[in-house]
Amino acid sequence: MIRIDSLTHRYPRQKAPALDRVDLDIAEGSITGVIGPNGSGKTTLFTALSGRLAPTSGRILFSGAEIDREERAARSICVGIDRDFSSARAASVLRAARLRPTWDESIFTRLAERFSLAARGGLGRRSQGQRSLFITSIALASGAPLTLLDEPTGSLDVPTRMALAEEIIRVNAEADGARTVVIASHLVSELESLIEHVVILSAGRVVSTLNAGDLVSRVIALIGDPATIRRLVDADPHARILSERPLGRLAEIRIADASPRTLDAAVSAGVESAPLSFQDAFVSLIGKEN
Known about the structure:
This protein has 290 residues and is an alpha/beta fold. It is built from 11 helices and 14 strands. The strands form 3 sheets. A 6-stranded mixed beta sheet has the order 6-7-8-3-9-10, sandwiched between helices. A 4-stranded antiparallel beta sheet has the order 2-1-4-5, covered by helices on one side. The chain has a 4-stranded antiparallel beta sheet with strand order 12-13-11-14, with helices on both faces. The chain is elongated and about 65 Å long.
């Protein structure tokens, strides 16, 4: 287990902390998604986990032991949108990557063939998508126990994003629990089939952590008489209203954490229920927090 204990970080001249007492457990060997709006703290969390940043306070523990920045850097690799490789040459990046004792040449060869990655030439001459594919392939072939991918698919077309998702799953499965992959992405809908667990960040705080499949079941839209819906939600100690949209005399009210008993009572009262997509459920939860 990778445990994050009350992690906080403040950047100079910024009023609000980028990370605000974040408590989080990441299961080793898993593929975990970190999602949230711009400025939610995703990149700051990644740079802290990878040892590139010393947080203001808090602890990061691997298998129960707190480790320093140098050890975190040795155990992890972090690639993403905040790293500029436009002035680098592919051969130099690849040569440095091969120095890792955990480097797996067979993985890089497979990815290079699938994505037509050239091992020579300047990365600055490639499109942003081609650079992203090259650097992400380096990370996957690195063998790093903790692999952090910050927006790895944002600049790729749909078929390539799907192919890269397949490779991420394959690399994680082949490691047989020895590698943990954490992915931050704005493409929320595409993470649903890739990740096992989801962490939702907003304004530097953890809004929710749950199994990816549970996000959809946690939020539901109820359509009917708004007074009836509010009465049912008020009677449920765990349910809460996330948003409300008028529909003439009726309303669509999105609620979270309603019990089966509440949902059954809604149906009996003539209220229609409608499941939400992975992305809509996420947007509803984030909208309530902001």
